[in-house]
Each structure stands twice: as C-alpha cells, then as structure tokens.
Amino acid sequence: MVVLTGHSLTLEEVRRVVFHKEKVGMASESTQKVEKSHEAVKRIVADKKVVYGINTGFGKFSDVLIDQGDVKDLQLNLIRSHACGVGDPFPETVSRAMLLLRANALAKGFSGVRPVLIERLIELINNEIHPVVPQQGSLGASGDLAPLSHLALVLVGEGEVFYKGEICSANDALSKEGISPLTLEAKEGLALINGTQAMTAMGVIDYLEAERIAYQSEWIASLTIEGLRGIIDAFDEDIHLARGYVQQIDVARRIRDYLADSHLITKQGELRVQDAYSIRCIPQVHGASLQALDYVKEKLEIEINAATDNPLIFDDGEKVISGGNFHGQPIALAMDFMKIAIAELANISERRIERLVNPQLSDLPPFLSPEPGLQSGAMILQYCAASLVSENKTLAHPASVDSIPSSGNQEDHVSMGTIAARHAYDIIKNVNHVLAIELICALQAVEFRGVDKMASSTRKYFDEARRVVPTIAKDRQFSKDIERVSEWLRYSWV
C-alpha cells in the first residue's frame, strides 16, 4: 500500500498505483494536520474574517464578500461553473494519477479541507472510479481549474467516470460501490480545483513513458548498428570521459554492453573510417535527452509533493496567505523541455532508418526488400517515420512562451503547462511509432547480415521481437506491424 503523507510520494509509487492498481491510504499524522487546518477554516467562517476563497468570490470577484449562510453554495457553484473543459478526455491512467496527486497535496494539511474529502479521493482510487476529465480548457494558472473541476464534480455525485471498462454517471458508480456523495464545505471546492494536478499527472505519465522510450531506443539503436556494421570505436569510454557528461558516458557504456560479443560490428578502418552522425553520435544525442529527462524528473518529484492551492493555511490558522503556488510555470517549462528532448530521439532514429533502407547509404538490399522492384519492402515505413518526426517538430514548439490574460486581467500571466504536457504525450506516441519502425527495419537488416553473428544481448531482443513481428518475406500491410510493435514496446515496461 502507498501511504500518503503529502511530502514523500515518489514517481515509482505513482507508477505502482496507476499501472498496477496498488491500494492507497493516508498517514495518521497527515490526518491530524488536515483536521487542524480544517478547524482553522471553521473559525474563520465563524469569526467572519474576510479570507479569499472562504467567504469571498474568486478571481476578479475576490472583492465580493459572501454571506456566512452561502459559503457551501459558493463551493458547489465554483466547481459547476468551472467544469467547462472540452475535447477528448485524458487517458484513464492520467485521471487516476490526478486523484492520487490531488489527495497527496491536500494531505499536507495546508488547505483547510476535512479529512473525509481526502478519504473520498482515496476511495475513488481504490475502487477504480476515475473521473472523465476533458483535456482542453486549462491555462495552467490559477492551476488546472477546468480539468480539476470535472474531477471535483465526481465527489458530489455529478459528472462522468470511467468505471469497469465503461463511461457512466458518477452517481451510478458511487452508488454501486456504496459511496455517498459529499456536500462541500467552506474552501473545499477551491482546494480541489486550485492546483497543478492535471498538468502534473499528465507530466508524470509522460515522464514514465519517456524514460522507457529513452532506454529502449538504445538497444534498438544497437540492432541498427549491427545491421549497418557500425564502428564500435566511437563508443570507447575514453572519448566520453573526455567530454564528461555522465549521461553520455552511460549511454556509450550500455551500447558497448549490448554489442560486447557481436561479430557484426567493425573497427575504424575495416570497412570505413567513420560512421554517420546518427550512429557515431548516439551517446551525445541520446545522452543529452537523458539530461533533460533528469531535469524533468527533479521538477515532477517536487511538484507531486507540493501544496499548490490558494490560499494556504499556516500556524493553525494564525497565518492565511494568498499566493501563487498554483502557477504551473515550473512544470510548463519542464514539459516543453521534455518535448524537445524526446522528439530528438525520433529525429535521430529516423535518420538511422534512412540508412537502413537507402541503397545509396549501405550495402543492404534496397529498402530491405526481398525482391527489389517487384516488392517495395520498407520503403514507405521510412515515409511514415519522416511524417511523424515532422509532426513532432510542430508539437515541440514551446507552449510556455504564450500567455493570455484571464479573469478580467486579474490573472494576467498564465503558464499553459497543461497544453505542454498534452503535447508531450502526443510526441511520445509518435516517437514510440518511429522506434517501432526502426526496430522492424533493424530486425530485417541483421537477418540479412546473419543472426548467428549478433551479440548475445541483442540476439535476445531479436528473438523476442520476432515473436511480435515476422520477417518481411513479401510485401504486406505494414501499418499493423508498426502498431503491434509499438504496443509491445509500450506495455513491455509496465
């Protein structure tokens, strides 16, 4: 069981909860902190102190005071009015992660909610009731208002959920699991929606898949090196130590390990003096992408344990401060960085694909065709890869450089972090397909060279991959092969 404290959640724990459906609980010390924070909100309401979001309107309405008898209606009105997302829903994995991250943030005890609110979020996780949350509509400050409003609606029995493989009304799913809808109290609606959990949940799923892609790209590239009879000298440790980047050094070491006993690799001067950059510079390019992913990981590990709503309550209510922790700029920049880093893995992969299929660049059969001319072989696989990397270049344009004022210019700078996280997911899917294409081509190339000459490590990958996609004995509908290999790459890591 993953126990939420508000400060100790790890990406590995998120992965276990999201993909392996591990159960979740809340630490007793967190429950006590949450209780104290909620008591402070109750005193503020009883004493009629003016505090943003508790007895005032929101955004541009922050100067509008709310009567004590209307504070509960204020919270329900908030989530109903803000639930205006559009477009396809986030993947169910992202919705599940959103519940987890929102519960963990509230468990820090700075938000003034009742423990039952967090317990209800945990019940949704443990009963696999996942809110249907439209992907579009968030500016990334004040947090992910629209997406998190769709999540919050489920707690009051409204909206829709993923439940047992179908989409149904939240009320029906709650009823079947014996869960009663909540009536929100002072500040609870605001605490639920004022945060970065949509962009961060999407970002965590992005990162976990991106990390997987980065490591898979290395053994796939190793098969390509064998198929092209690449020069191993470029991966010599001394070269990479001379530059000093740890990630570059590690990539070179892993490539050497994959190819340790290969009879297909060459030494410089045997067949050629140098390989093209897409082969020779694998450690430098892949290593730089891993550097970017390390940066992204650091930001996500902070954000999944961050208090990101507003206002925050300190010192048992003696200090209540309106600030801007909901602003998604740290995650927006990280997501844009990750988009570029992962897109580059596809860019260099597509160039390796070209070298595998282009008869002017290698001595392999033209387009790896079994009967060049009569059969096109892998010719159009490269077209597909080229299209995907071109699309990625558009998606990699940074979202965080844009900002549109909102709420009557009260919220005059926003992050667009959720857009960045969504686009990162699209790029990752494209990269996955490009790597699948490289793998299909590399498998064919090493067959031509002689499978018995492969390294023992790459041979294991070859045998496993051949169970997913057969050799190209004649032309067929390769779209199905690409999808099958892509799915295998995606789900072999979970």
Explain the overall architecture:
There is a cross-link at residues 141-143 (5-imidazolinone (Ala-Gly)). With 494 residues, this protein is mainly alpha-helical. The protein folds into two domains: 2-195, Fumarase C, Chain B, domain 1, CATH 1.10.275.10; 203-491, Fumarase C, Chain A, domain 2 (Up-down Bundle), CATH 1.20.200. Helix content is 55%, strand content 6%. The protein has helices spanning 11-20, 28-47, 71-82, 92-106, 115-126, 145-155, 170-176, 188-193, 197-227, 237-243, 246-258, 277-280, 282-303, 329-357, 379-395, 417-449, 456-466, 478-491; strands at 2-4, 24-26, 86-89, 129-131, 134-136, 160-163, 166-169, 312-314, 319-321. Helix 1 (11-20) links the parallel strand 1 (2-4) and strand 2 (24-26). Helix 3 (71-82) crosses helix 6 (145-155) and helix 14 (329-357) runs parallel beside helix 16.
Number of domains: 2
| Shape, per Cα inertia axes | elongated
The beta-strand count equals 9
Strand order of the largest sheet: 4-6-7
CATH topology of the largest domain: Fumarase C, Chain A, domain 2
Give me the CATH architecture of the largest domain, please: Up-down Bundle
Radius of gyration, rounded? 26 Å
Structural class: mainly alpha
How do the SSEs run, as a string of H and E?
A: EHEHHEHHEEHEEHHHHHHHEEHHHHH
Helix content: 55-70%
**Spans of 5+ residues with little confidence (pLDDT < 50)?**
none
